Amino acid sequence: MRPIADATTLNRLFVGYTEHALIGEMGITETRLVDYVACLLVRFLHRDQIFSLPAPVGKSLFVIGDMVHELERSPAVGPARRELFRHIGDFALFWTGIFPEAVQHQRANVAKGIEEVTCHGKRSYFMASTYRDTPAHADEAPILRQLSDEFEICATGLRRARDLWQADQSEPS
């Protein structure tokens, strides 16, 4: 395995794998969508970003069902609620794309586990896309809607990006 020099190099590497998989192999032509997914992957390299939703004291939100339950109980409105929806969508896309085996491990019925997380991700992206209360949110809304519509394709692209970096890392330098 080759060592990676620094965070900037690591970011470029993951963006390159994601772009290759989504544009080159999956045929996605919407560059803003590809950029969003690549940035999601780089952002979630940091564990604190993956598990950033506020949780009740003494509880961690590691399961998407718990996140959805907390969202439904949350008094958050407007932009704060939009961010909760967006994070759940990002979380679902990351796990179904990069670590589907972890999603499968949580459920006895493997297909139902992936299907359930995918449904939560698609719904969350759709709900986040309906918030257009700031210019930035209005600008990002079409991308979030596209993520809802093309969730499975983006998850497959992320799996392919993971395959590419694993293959690259296993080649002798």
Short description:
By secondary structure, this protein is mostly helical. Helix content is 74%, strand content 0%.
Notes on the structure:
This protein is mainly α and 173 residues long. It has one domain (7-170). It has 9 helices and no strands. It has helices at residues 7-25, 31-43, 47-50, 64-73, 78-98, 100-105, 110-129, 135-149, 151-170. Helix 1 packs across helix 9 (151-170), helix 5 packs antiparallel against helix 7 (110-129) and helix 7 packs antiparallel against helix 8. The longest helix has 21 residues, at 78-98. The radius of gyration is 16 Å and the shape is globular. The chain starts with 6 loop residues before the first helix and ends with a helix.
Question: Layout of SSEs?
Answer:
Elements: H1 7-25, H2 31-43, H3 47-50, H4 64-73, H5 78-98, H6 100-105, H7 110-129, H8 135-149, H9 151-170
Helix pairs in contact: 1-2, 1-9, 4-5, 5-7, 5-9, 7-8
